[in-house]
Design a protein that fits this description.
Layout lengths: L24 E11 L5 E13 L4 H8 L3 H19 L3 H7 L1 H19 L3 E8 L2 E2 L2 H20 L1
Antiparallel strand pairs: 1-2, 2-3, 2-4
Helix pairs in contact: 2-4
C-alpha cells in the first residue's frame, strides 16, 4: 500500500518499505551506441529524460515493474528508440537534418508506450546531446564541405 509522507512505525524483519520519488526526476542514459543505415557507428554521450511517477499509479507500477520501473521504461526504451531511429537514417540525417526533431520524437514515442503499458509514468521532456562520430568520418566530411565551398566560389 502507498502512504503519504509522515511518521510510521515498523516491526523489524516483518515490515518492509521502499521509498519512491513522485516528484519530477531526471534520468540520464549514457553511452548509447548507434549504427546508421550507412553502417557508421556513432555514440550518443547522454540522453536526459525528465519524468514523473504519478502518485495514484505508484502501487500498480511497482507491482507490475518493481521499484526499478525506470530501467524498463526509460533506460532500456531510450536505447531501443535511438537504435530504431539510427538504423533507418543516414549520418547526415541524424547529425544535421533531423537532429533538432529528435528530442520531441523521443518524448512522444516514450509517452505513447508508457501510456499503453505503464500509465503512471509521465514523460515531461527529453534532451539529447549531439552524437560523437568517428574522427576519420568527421575529417572526410569537413574536407568534402570545404571542396563544396570551393566549387561554389568558382561557379
Amino acid at each position: 500500500a502507498t502512504t503519504n509522507p509522515g511518521y510510521r512505525t515498523m516491526m523489524p524483519w516483518i515490515t518492509q518499505f521502499q521509498s519512491l520519488q513522485v516528484r519530477m526526476q531526471t534520468d540520464k542514459v549514457t553511452d548509447i551506441p548507434c549504427g546508421t543505415s550507412g553502417g557508421v557507428m556513432i555514440y550518443f554521450d547522454k540522453v536526459e529524460v525528465v519524468n514523473k511517477l504519478k502518485r495514484e499509479f505508484v502501487y500498480e507500477t511497482v507491482k507490475n515493474y518493481t521499484i526499478h520501473y525506470d530501467k524498463t521504461w526509460i533506460y532500456d526504451r531510450i536505447h531501443h528508440e535511438i537504435n530504431q531511429f539510427c538504423s533507418s537514417h543516414t549520418l547526415q540525417e541524424i547529425y544535421i537534418d533531423q537532429f533538432d526533431e529528435l528530442d520531441e520524437n523521443l518524448q512522444q514515442s516514450l509517452q505513447q508506450v508508457t501510456d499503453l503499458w505503464a500509465p503512471g509514468i509521465e514523460v515531461i521532456a527529453v534532451r539529447v546531446t549531439k552524437p560523437k562520430i568517428p574522427d576519420i568520418v568527421r575529417s572526410n566530411y569537413e574536407k568534402m564541405e570545404e571542396n563544396k565551398a570551393k566549387l561554389k566560389m568558382v561557379l
